[in-house]
Amino acid sequence: MYIVLVYDISQDEKGQRRWSRVFKICKKYLSHIQNSVFEGEISKAQLAKMKNELGPYINDELDSVIIFKSRQEKWLDKEFLGKVEDKTGFLL
């Protein structure tokens, strides 16, 4: 499946440390697009593993993680406004 993951980690209560850990975990599984946004192709098993790894670093009272799911990237219509940096358009 293709997902877009967006997170907002509060800077209260050791937020910088939590933000750093969340960033590193997401980078293991997905492509970093901008600030706190990641996207990429991922299996259901990898998604479950990533969510399990993120769990200890998400404060349910302060933080937010949103995962948008699609069957494939081709079903996702991307539109850019402002500076265009499509870091997912790799040429091989």
Characterization of this structure:
Helix 1 (15-29) packs antiparallel against helix 2. The chain has a four-stranded antiparallel β-sheet, with helices on one face. The chain has two helices and four strands. It starts with a strand and ends in a 22-residue tail after the last strand. Helices cover 28% and strands 25% of the residues. The protein is an alpha+beta fold.
Shape: globular
- The secondary-structure element order is EHEEHE
The poorly predicted ranges are none
Overall mean confidence score, pLDDT = 85
Tally of separate helices: 2
Strand order of the largest sheet: 2-3-1-4
Main sheet summary: 4 strands, antiparallel
Distance between the termini: 22 Å
The rounded Rg comes to 14 Å
Find the count of extended strands (DSSP E, 2+ residues): 4
Name the beta content range: 25-35%
- The portion of residues assigned to helices is 25-40%
Offer a few descriptive terms.
alpha+beta; single chain; about 90 residues; globular; 4 strands; four-stranded antiparallel β-sheet; 2 helices
Secondary-structure map with pairings?
Blueprint: E1 2-8, H1 15-29, E2 31-34, E3 37-41, H2 44-54, E4 64-70
Antiparallel strand pairs: 1-3, 1-4, 2-3
Short description:
This protein is α+β, with helices and mostly antiparallel strands and 92 residues long. The protein has two helices and four strands; from the N terminus they run βαββαβ.
